[in-house]
Structures are given as structure tokens and as C-alpha cells.
Design brief:
Strand order of the largest sheet: 1-2-3-4-5-6-7-8
Number of helices: 10
Bound molecules: erythose-4-phosphate
Shape: globular
Number of strands: 8
Amino acid sequence: MRRHDVKLFLDTANIQHIREAAEMGVVDGVTTNPTLISREDGEFEDIVREICEIVGGPVSAEVVSTDADGMVQEAEKLAKIHDCVVVKIPMIKEGVKALHILKEKGIPTNCTLVFSANQALLAAKAGATFVSPFIGRLDDAGHVGMDLVREVLAIYENYGFETEVIVASVRHPLHVVEAGVSGAHITTMSYAVFEKM
Ligand code: E4P
């Protein structure tokens, strides 16, 4: 049974790669992080704006503050860059506070660095637009990352949360297959994984 559209995001800040994939009509959004942006030439805001203009869908840009007030201030600046910007907030206590405040302000968020179902539950309760379970890093540590995705989807389904699940920290095309089988809303992947598909 079809539950929702499948969405594929690229996990990169490389304009050329984003443009190439976008021209194929299969990229719905982009996730970035400070490490990915630091690999590219140009000013942070210019890179984020250009990505938004290319994809015309959700583009996650991450805060670097670790306190809620700082995160909210950064989020307000990031949201002004472009309507497509989604503010990436880390799953820490201060991050949960920031998610709640940003929900009230109508600024979309992506709660990142999620490693447990309870963290995903807190993110959704606080009002996150998206939540990003990091399956590759869980696999790296001897867990089955996709088990987390299945748990989160079941919890969200039980309680009717609208938060969308972005399968993140994807290492290979099999993760994309497993994400699709699980019914996750979105998978975000590096350009290398995209090319392997
Ligand atoms: C997603 O939003 C993240 O940028 C990304 O998937 C992190 O994955 P990593 O484990 O490769 O750092």
C-alpha cells in the first residue's frame, strides 16, 4: 500500500553534484553539515542559497551553537537565507528546547544525530519537521541501524506524528533499498552512493 511519495535527498554541499542529480529530476532536497560545507569554495550563505535555488526543496543547514538561545538566533538567520532552508538542530537537551521554540516560530527543523527511538520520540514531541537517524554510524558501532528506522516509523505511525524520517549516514546503496522497504519518508545519500544507484 502506497503511504507517501518517496523522497531522495543528496547529502552534500557540492553544487556541481547537486546540479547534475537535479537535472535528472530525482532529487527532492539536500542535507548539509558544517563539514560538508567546509569542503566547498565560497561563503556559507551563498552556498546554501545556491543549493536552495537549484533543488527548490528542503535544504538542511546546521547550527553550531550548543545552547538553545544560540541555536535559535542562528536558526533565525539561516531561515532568512531562503524559504527552502530547514534548520538542522543536534539531538541534545538544548537542541530539544530549540526545536520547541522554533516550532512556535514556524521555522522548519531537522533533528540530527539521532541514535535511539526515544531521541526520535522527543524530537517529534518537541515539534521537529524532520528527524535524522544515523544508521551508518550505528552499523559502524555494531548495531543494526535500520532497526532504529523501523522503530521510529512504528512509533510515529502509532501516535500520528507528522515528523518525517530522513534515513541519514547512509553508506551504500543497500541502505537505500532497506530505507525504501521500511517505508521511511526520505533517504539522504552522498553523491558517491547516488552514482552507485
Ligand atoms: C545527514 O544529514 C548527515 O549530514 C550525514 O548523513 C552524516 O553522515 P556521516 O555518518 O557520514 O557523517
